[in-house]
Amino acid sequence: MSSALAASINSPAMWAIEEVGARNVVKYAKSTFGFTNELPAVPSLALGTGEVSMLEMAGGYSVFQSGGDRYTPYGIVRIVGPDGTTLARSSGQKFNRVMSTASATGMDALLRTVVTSGTAKAASYVVNARGKTGTTNSHKDAWFAGYTDQYIGIGWIGNDVPNPSGNPPFVSGTMAGVFGGEVTAPMWARIMSKVQDIYPEPRRQIRAIGRVIEEPDEEEEEEDTTHIDADDNVRTTPENTDPVVAPRINEGNTESGTTGSTGGGDGLTVEPVKDPPTNDPPKTKPKDPPAQGGGDGGGDLISVEVCADSSARASVYCPERRRIKVPRDQAPRGRCPLHGPH
């Protein structure tokens, strides 16, 4: 979940909405987050087929910021008549515990990871920043919905003018398109940092969870007890406290898939975690025992998950995967070349 959200990979969002049901998602969006626009109850809602306003987004993100409460945004504090009489006053509305504190805190940690090591790294210098980027088809909409402990800011850049080249007219010749992480997040960060210059807030340690790495080979897979320190960008394990270089996620601009108006994909290059050099002598892998005959799981046969399209070892990006049993020395070693984060 953390890897998918940080890298704006759309497939897991589709799997999630299919698992819980699109109608339940629409109902939850209205009851918990306060959305009033009509949202289509279809699986592609996870990719942004519905439309929402920036005020609705601000109210929705207040749930994560406040630990489960929702606040309605408002624009007018009070209206005063010519004689100084207050004719109307507004202070917004608070809805208590629309989401459990545990769920809101978990989402808060995921959204922190987007900023520390994901598509919104351009906003990482803003104190206590969390949020999510999004880019729609043809780069028509580019979002960054973000917040700190005290402030919420919803950034949106949009253009409805069609362009046969696929890029909005304001895109320079040096850019392949407008992405939430490349354009909107930096804009959001510049504005939010100015707000914090005037109204500072104390910096604190915010938990970020997860990491983005390539899947281990089937025969090398083991239980993962690793965690990432959000601000130090270093991961450690309970058994080994030596620091290990954390994965680097570099913004790109080659993403072309459909992404959501309420969040979605931005182009990324994901580099696997690399362990630091060591002076220990190289370990020799013991030779495999001779085959003891065929059959399921017998002898030298191992189970491997492969991509249905390329027959290479599958990655998390392959849409269709299948598990096969092959001799160990004939198992595919390279990852699928057809499917990636872009």
Secondary-structure map:
Blueprint: H1 2-7, H2 11-20, H3 22-31, H4 54-66, E1 70-71, E2 78-80, E3 86-89, E4 94-95, H5 101-117, E5 130-135, E6 141-147, E7 152-158, H6 180-198, E8 227-229, E9 234-236, E10 244-245, E11 249-251, E12 268-270, E13 301-307, E14 321-327
Antiparallel strand pairs: 1-4, 2-3, 5-6, 6-7, 8-9, 9-10, 11-12, 13-14
Characterization of this structure:
It contains six helices and 14 strands. By secondary structure, it is an alpha+beta fold. The chain has two domains: 197 residues, DD-peptidase/beta-lactamase superfamily (Beta-lactamase, 3-Layer(aba) Sandwich), CATH 3.40.710.10; 60 residues, no CATH class. The strands form six sheets. Strands 5-6-7 form a three-stranded antiparallel β-sheet, sandwiched between helices. The chain has a three-stranded antiparallel β-sheet with strand order 8-9-10, with no helix packed on it. Helix 4 packs across helix 5.
